[in-house]
Design a protein that fits this description.
3 helices, mainly alpha, 51% helix
Length: 55
């Protein structure tokens, strides 16, 4: 079985260039809710923003 590398561990080993926008945003979110992981929340935020979180 292949173990999926946690986002923070992937960041520490490979740098931010190895992470998707969703993974980077999930680091900033830092924790999920009872119903959704931080990755799901990050993905939903990016979908709502149409992938553009710039000001």
């Amino acid at each position: 079985m292949v173990r999926k590398q946690p986002t923070a561990e992937k960041f520490m080993q490979k740098s931010f260039t190895a992470l998707s926008d969703t993974e980077l945003l999930s680091i900033l979110i830092s924790s999920g809710t009872q119903d959704n992981s931080r990755l799901v929340l990050a993905q939903e935020a990016l979908q709502l923003a149409k992938g553009n979180l710039s000001f």
